[in-house]
Amino acid sequence: MATLEIEDLVVDIPGRSDGGALNLRVQSGQRWGVLGPNGAGKTSLLHTLAGLRAPRRGQVILNGEPLVRLSRRDIARQVAVVFQERQDSFPATVMETVLIGRHPFLSPWQRESADDIRLANDALSTVSLHLFKDRLMNTLSGGERQRVSIATALTQQPAIWLADEPTNHLDLHHQVAVMELLNQQAKDGAAVFMCLHDLNLAARWCDHLLLLYPDGELCFGPAETMLVPEALERLYDQKLVVGQVNGTPVFVPG
Question: Which helix (H) or strand (E) holds 210?
């Protein structure tokens, strides 16, 4: 069972005093959504959980081992990170990019095996980009590049997904497709932890929510206990009107 334990964690955000310390446990099969306004620290939290930045205090424990004791390769064999924006420094095809997901499992100078290539092809088919595998990344739209990022993580076969705005740049059809993919990953045993701007995506697809307030306050729990208009209105400093669609709450600005 994949677990990410967060103990007394305070994210280091320059110029901000300590907020509340975070203590929670992300487990296999769970779909966590992180909600908060711009600047609340969602991306900083995600990068801290991935070991890409040090916390101000506290620690992250990955499957029983403190993150600071693990190499980047060890972490990458268990955790995939989907960034909000992708920066490609060198010209590469879509297939070459997606195969990066297999690099943590290869020794230096080892070439990808037939199984690695099959995983990459399967991932590209899953995000409907199998016909794009020979295209250069710099010829793709923002939404297509985001789907390549999802396919790269899928090729990695992670036990834990850390996704920063996984639906960024995507149209409605592909937003739903990506959320269904992450939902299926959780059903198959992965833990999914994602930052979202769209409150309605979180209401539909997440079973746990973490609310990050601008003053550093935080609260978390099962989604049904977090989707309270008063708490969400204070979170976003915005009045909300709440409806229901097929039993799921829908929020629109008041």
Answer: strand 208-212
Tens of pLDDT, residues 43-68: 999 999 999 999 999 999 999 999 99
* E strand or H helix that includes residue 229: helix 229-236
Q: Which of 202, 233, 231 is nearest to 219 (CA)?
A: 231
Burial class (CB in 10 A: 0-12, 13-18, 19+), 35: buried
- SS3 of 140, please? coil
174 with 129, same domain: the answer is: no
Q: What is the pLDDT of residues 110-151, one digit of tens each?
A: 999 999 999 999 999 999 999 999 999 999 999 999 999 999
Q: Which residues contact 73 (CB under 8 A, 6 or more apart)?
A: 104
Same domain, 165 and 203: yes
Name the pTM for this structure. Answer: 0.95
Q: List the domain range (segments joined by +) for residue 16.
A: 1-78+158-223
pLDDT digits over 189-198, tens only?
Answer: 999 999 999 9
